[in-house]
Amino acid sequence: MIKSNSLEKLIDNCINYSDYNISLVIYTLLKNKYRLSEDNKLEYYVNNNWIIDNNSNNLKKDIETIVNNEFLKRIKYWNNTENNDAELKVQKLLGCSMKLKNKKYILTIIKEVKSLFENGDCSFFN
User: Which of 25, 80, 83, 113 measures 20 to 30 Å from 89, CA to CA?
Assistant: First the structure.
């Protein structure tokens, strides 16, 4: 289970629009659902089986929904916060959210995320 405050910090770090930071959020949210097989194919877990994710279609859908929804929750939090930086964070995170709905961007970010799935984990979490 992901600790809420660590996910919030990861999402807040995305205000610099870094593909790596956005990839960390995706990986953190979906690391138990996806993996990279030995033959470098993305697989997802369903009904106690690992199934090849052809053209990364399931991952694309999960990025557009699950991941984007977490960004929207964080945007809502900052939108309701009395903080000097809140408005800037809302605007930056909205930019990230829009990127996560862009088909071309999703293809780009999947390449970055695949490297995290390939490594099985990353130094950020150690």
Answer: 113
Residue 123 has pLDDT above 90, yes or no: no
In the chain, where the domains are located: 4-117
Count CB-CB contacts under 10 A for residue 64: 15
The greatest distance separating any two alpha carbons of the chain, rounded to the nearest whole angstrom, comes to 50
Q: Which two tokens stand for residue 32?
A: 């138990």
pLDDT in tens, 37-84: 888 899 999 999 999 999 999 999 999 999 999 999 999 999 999 888
How far apart are alpha carbons 56 and 88 in whole angstroms?
33
Spatial separation of the C-alpha atoms in residues 84 and 70, rounded to whole Å: 22
**Cα–Cα separations (whole angstroms), residue 23 to 63, 64, 81, 87:** 10, 13, 26, 24
- Alpha carbon distance 9, 89 (integer Å): 12
Structure token pair of residue 111:
């390449």
Decide: 22 and 30 in contact? Cβ < 8 Å: no
For the stretch 109-121, pLDDT in tens is 999 999 898 865 5
